[in-house]
């Protein structure tokens, strides 16, 4: 049985004779190239990210964070970030408030704390004009306008705009009551409930001696 003729390709090499002794033409089978062998003109996103870090495309992700903490193994991209992190292990708090005795591990935390003394509120709500001393407080406030409730309870379908509200709600499932009254054995799931309860003790005991002196009693 005769085999079908295979397509011929013109020989562009030097000389009159193609490899295999054929004059002017060379027989080559047509081969389908798999898509996996076709190179793309652009590198994949992961390689582009490596080059953005100034690293060769073959560098592992760990090479982007060469500064490693010997205490816990956490890695950082900058030595200054590692030095700041080490303060969490040593307990060192070099940033001291000039208005009180508090000190902090990070300068950014000191700046935020100082606003409690100065009353500065640099973060303003664009919807109502209310101002805040911390950006996190502004973010929480903005959810009141947007109705966003990103914190969802894993035990039920309830959602909350603040993580602290979710923590309080979860205690209704766990039964946890971490707030203990110093005047009696009662415990409470919310600090506001404890404060309200302690007012009952204060009313029963009457005004304190210091308060009685102030009021001329």
UniProtKB/TrEMBL annotation:
Biased composition (Basic and acidic residues): 1-12
Alphabetical list of SUPFAM superfamilies matching this protein: beta-beta-alpha zinc fingers
Any one Gene Ontology cellular component term annotated for this protein: nucleus
Predominant localisation class: nucleus
Keywords: DNA-binding, Metal-binding, Nucleus, Repeat, Transcription, Transcription regulation, Zinc, Zinc-finger
Cited InterPro entries: Znf_C2H2_sf (IPR036236), Znf_C2H2_type (IPR013087)
Region feature (Disordered): 1-49
PANTHER family recorded: KRUEPPEL-LIKE TRANSCRIPTION FACTOR, SI:DKEY-210J14.3
Family indicated by similarity: Belongs to the krueppel C2H2-type zinc-finger protein family.
Protein name as annotated: C2H2-type domain-containing protein
Gene name, Swiss-Prot/TrEMBL: LOC116240040
């Amino acid at each position: 049985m005769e085999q079908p003729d295979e397509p011929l390709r013109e020989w562009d090499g030097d000389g009159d004779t193609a490899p295999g002794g054929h004059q002017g033409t060379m027989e080559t089978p047509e081969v389908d190239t798999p898509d996996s062998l076709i190179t793309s003109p652009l590198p994949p996103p992961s390689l582009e990210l490596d080059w953005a870090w100034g690293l060769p495309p073959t560098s592992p992700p760990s090479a982007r964070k060469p500064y490693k903490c010997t205490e816990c193994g956490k890695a950082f991209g900058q030595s200054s970030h590692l030095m700041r992190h080490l303060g969490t292990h040593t307990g060192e708090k070099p940033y001291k408030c000039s208005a009180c005795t508090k000190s902090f591990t990070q300068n950014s935390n000191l700046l935020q704390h100082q606003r409690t003394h100065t009353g500065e509120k640099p973060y303003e709500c664009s919807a109502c004009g209310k101002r805040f001393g911390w950006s996190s407080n502004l973010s929480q406030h903005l959810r009141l306008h947007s109705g966003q409730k990103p914190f969802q309870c894993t035990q039920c379908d309830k959602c909350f705009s603040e993580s602290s509200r979710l923590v309080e709600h979860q205690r209704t499932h766990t039964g946890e009551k971490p707030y203990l009254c110093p005047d009696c054995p009662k415990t409470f799931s919310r600090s506001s409930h404890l404060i309200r309860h302690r007012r009952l003790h204060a009313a029963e005991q009457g005004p304190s001696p210091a308060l009685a002196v102030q009021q001329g009693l």
